[in-house]
């Protein structure tokens, strides 16, 4: 292939979705998952100054009923990872701001060695009335462990950019 042909080749840059590309009711699966290690949990827990022994003290956790005698993965790590797993597919370079989180639940615990998978449902979207070329997207994030059990849910309101004037195609590049 000549250098002219190489320079004329189609290029694709990874990015999230513009407001117009979100589809209400669509579930976006985020893969690959993320296996959570003891090091992940200990580092996150100590960095955030969370001294809960259920996350840090294996001997103490072993005496507690109901959690298999193991330390639990910090729920804030779980929530952060569920949202993080969605970024490259949904909001990479297209988000303006997180507006808020609600309806956060942790119906089942995560343990060291569990693998976290995430999915997101687009609940609603609308053009902003006060910010030209931006819109609000309401997302429901769901985290599941390797057994398919839901370990985390959260609703997140985001402010995202509308498609720039003149841009065509789907996420990641021109469809032509």
Helix content: 10-25%
CATH topology (fold) name of the domain at 14-36 and 73-161: Thiol Ester Dehydrase, Chain A
Number of helices: 5
CATH architecture designation of the domain at 14-36 and 73-161: Roll
Annotation, overall tally of beta strands: 5
Q: What is the rounded Rg? A: 20 Å
Could you tell me the strand content as a percent range?
25-35%
Q: Mean pLDDT across all residues, rounded?
A: 91
The structure class reads alpha+beta
What does this protein structure show overall?
- It is a single chain.
- With 176 residues, this protein is α+β, with helices and mostly antiparallel strands.
- Helices cover 23% and strands 32% of the residues.
- It contains five helices and five strands; from the N terminus they run αβααααββββ.
- The chain has a five-stranded antiparallel sheet, with helices on one face.
- A hairpin with a 6-residue loop joins strand 3 and strand 4.
- The longest helix has 16 residues, at 75-90.
